[in-house]
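Students often ask what a holo structure prediction actually looks like on paper. The answer is less mysterious than it sounds. You provide the chain, you provide the ligand, and the output is a string of discrete structure tokens encoding the 3D arrangement of the protein together with 5-phospho-D-arabinohydroxamic acid.
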Amino acid sequence: MNVTELPFKLMLEPTAFKSFQATKRIVRRLSDMQAYFRDKDAVDEILANSDRMLYEFLEIEGEENQSLSFGMTTIFPGTIGNEFHMTKGHFHTLEEDGPEIYVTLQGQGKLILLSRAGQEQVLDMEVGSISYILAGWAHRTVNVGQEDLVFLSIWPGQVGHDYASIAERGGFPKLIVPGENGPVAIENSTFSRCEEEV
Ligand code: PAN
Ligand code: ZN
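The corresponding structure tokens follow.
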């Protein structure tokens, strides 16, 4: 049975998605994201020993108009050089743009946001927080804690994911790194703004 053919319920807890078959499971390892971290020596050193799993996400995809997709992401704790484990991050594709809601179920995170017009924001993610990502804002999540960061995401079913625009810009405007009193956002020197941006 395809789970999306019938109504169903899940509990709002970090293990909820383990209990049934999601339509898609994606695992991102360090080898998939070498170019995303700035400390290339640290990347090489870790890869020489093992191809670390950075995060996984399980999805139930709704592909048609007026459907909803939803998924559960787990980012495992750790750092590459001095950058915390993070997602690739993406814009929703321009033609099928749409907003998204994240609900944090476990751990501590930061949500880095960038609008197409060049506005930027960093929001804290903690257990019970709901983050509203406006249409047109790229989003990346970072696990800044010692345990798994687990969050639920809900977005319009027809929305596509544009990773290339992030790579072309050299990432997001901010990097999240450990500081003396907890995680801090610093400027990302490889980030380039488009000329038309404000
Ligand atoms: C999330 C993300 C998920 C993985 O479900 O797709 O957290 O992040 P990346 O897709 O950037 O690798 C979401 O934002 N969906 O739209
Ligand atoms: Zn998204």
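The pocket of zinc ion (ligand 2) is lined by residues 90, 92, 100, 139, 155 (CB under 6 Å).
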